[in-house]
Specification:
The protein is of the alpha/beta class. It has helices at about 20-30, 50-60, 75-85, 100-110; strands spanning about 1-5, 15-20, 35-40, 65-70, 95. It has a five-stranded parallel beta sheet. β4, α3 (about 75-85) and β5 (about 95) form a beta-alpha-beta unit. α1 (about 20-30) runs parallel beside α2.
Length: about 120
Amino acid sequence: MINLYLDDYRPCPKGFALARDGEECLMMLRESEVHILSLDHELGFGQMDGTDVVKAMVHEGLFANEIYLHTSSMSGRKRMYELLYQAKPEHVILHDGAMPAELLSDIANQASQGQG
Protein backbone atom coordinates (compact mmCIF):
# COMPACT_ATOMS: atom_id res chain seq x y z
CA MET A 1 0.00 0.00 0.00
CA ILE A 2 1.34 3.45 -0.93
CA ASN A 3 0.64 7.09 -0.20
CA LEU A 4 0.36 9.18 -3.37
CA TYR A 5 0.99 12.90 -3.91
CA LEU A 6 -0.12 14.58 -7.17
CA ASP A 7 1.62 17.88 -7.88
CA ASP A 8 3.47 19.30 -10.88
CA TYR A 9 5.62 21.70 -8.86
CA ARG A 10 5.72 21.22 -5.09
CA PRO A 11 8.28 18.85 -3.55
CA CYS A 12 6.94 15.44 -2.59
CA PRO A 13 6.55 14.83 1.15
CA LYS A 14 8.62 12.00 2.59
CA GLY A 15 6.71 8.72 2.66
CA PHE A 16 4.76 9.48 -0.54
CA ALA A 17 5.09 8.38 -4.15
CA LEU A 18 5.02 11.37 -6.50
CA ALA A 19 2.89 11.79 -9.60
CA ARG A 20 3.81 14.91 -11.57
CA ASP A 21 0.77 14.80 -13.89
CA GLY A 22 -2.75 13.43 -14.04
CA GLU A 23 -1.95 10.45 -16.27
CA GLU A 24 0.82 9.31 -13.93
CA CYS A 25 -1.51 9.66 -10.94
CA LEU A 26 -4.23 7.59 -12.60
CA MET A 27 -1.73 4.92 -13.63
CA MET A 28 -0.50 4.64 -10.03
CA LEU A 29 -4.08 4.48 -8.72
CA ARG A 30 -4.81 1.66 -11.18
CA GLU A 31 -1.69 -0.30 -10.28
CA SER A 32 -1.40 0.20 -6.51
CA GLU A 33 -3.58 0.20 -3.46
CA VAL A 34 -3.42 3.78 -2.16
CA HIS A 35 -3.88 4.62 1.50
CA ILE A 36 -3.58 8.44 1.40
CA LEU A 37 -3.97 10.48 -1.78
CA SER A 38 -3.26 14.21 -1.87
CA LEU A 39 -4.38 16.11 -4.98
CA ASP A 40 -3.36 19.40 -6.56
CA HIS A 41 -5.63 21.07 -9.11
CA GLU A 42 -3.44 23.23 -11.39
CA LEU A 43 -1.07 20.79 -13.12
CA GLY A 44 0.42 22.91 -15.87
CA PHE A 45 -0.74 24.53 -19.09
CA GLY A 46 -2.27 22.09 -21.53
CA GLN A 47 -2.30 19.25 -18.98
CA MET A 48 -5.14 17.47 -17.21
CA ASP A 49 -6.16 19.39 -14.11
CA GLY A 50 -7.30 17.97 -10.78
CA THR A 51 -10.94 18.02 -11.84
CA ASP A 52 -10.07 15.87 -14.88
CA VAL A 53 -8.22 13.45 -12.60
CA VAL A 54 -11.16 13.25 -10.19
CA LYS A 55 -13.62 12.65 -13.04
CA ALA A 56 -11.49 9.73 -14.24
CA MET A 57 -11.18 8.40 -10.67
CA VAL A 58 -14.96 8.49 -10.24
CA HIS A 59 -15.57 6.92 -13.66
CA GLU A 60 -13.13 4.07 -12.99
CA GLY A 61 -13.85 3.66 -9.26
CA LEU A 62 -10.27 4.54 -8.25
CA PHE A 63 -10.41 5.66 -4.63
CA ALA A 64 -7.79 5.85 -1.91
CA ASN A 65 -8.75 5.18 1.71
CA GLU A 66 -8.26 8.85 2.54
CA ILE A 67 -8.16 11.85 0.16
CA TYR A 68 -6.80 15.35 0.78
CA LEU A 69 -6.99 18.37 -1.54
CA HIS A 70 -3.82 20.45 -1.14
CA THR A 71 -4.48 22.81 -4.07
CA SER A 72 -4.42 26.57 -3.61
CA SER A 73 -7.16 26.90 -6.27
CA MET A 74 -10.36 27.52 -4.32
CA SER A 75 -12.63 26.88 -7.31
CA GLY A 76 -10.67 23.74 -8.25
CA ARG A 77 -10.84 22.42 -4.70
CA LYS A 78 -14.58 23.04 -4.58
CA ARG A 79 -15.19 21.16 -7.86
CA MET A 80 -12.97 18.23 -6.86
CA TYR A 81 -14.54 18.00 -3.41
CA GLU A 82 -18.10 18.04 -4.76
CA LEU A 83 -17.38 15.35 -7.38
CA LEU A 84 -15.59 13.12 -4.88
CA TYR A 85 -18.17 13.63 -2.12
CA GLN A 86 -21.03 12.56 -4.40
CA ALA A 87 -19.28 9.45 -5.70
CA LYS A 88 -16.97 8.16 -2.98
CA PRO A 89 -17.64 4.83 -1.30
CA GLU A 90 -18.79 5.11 2.29
CA HIS A 91 -15.44 3.96 3.76
CA VAL A 92 -13.42 6.70 1.98
CA ILE A 93 -12.50 9.68 4.15
CA LEU A 94 -12.51 12.95 2.20
CA HIS A 95 -10.88 16.15 3.51
CA ASP A 96 -11.52 19.60 2.09
CA GLY A 97 -7.94 20.78 2.48
CA ALA A 98 -4.31 19.83 2.83
CA MET A 99 -2.82 17.27 5.19
CA PRO A 100 -2.02 18.62 8.66
CA ALA A 101 1.67 19.05 9.49
CA GLU A 102 1.39 16.43 12.25
CA LEU A 103 0.18 13.78 9.80
CA LEU A 104 2.97 14.63 7.33
CA SER A 105 5.50 14.31 10.16
CA ASP A 106 4.07 10.95 11.29
CA ILE A 107 4.22 9.57 7.73
CA ALA A 108 7.80 10.82 7.27
CA ASN A 109 8.82 9.20 10.56
CA GLN A 110 7.22 5.90 9.57
CA ALA A 111 9.04 6.02 6.23
CA SER A 112 12.35 6.68 8.03
CA GLN A 113 11.74 3.64 10.21
CA GLY A 114 10.88 1.49 7.20
CA GLN A 115 7.20 1.22 8.12
CA GLY A 116 5.73 3.14 5.21
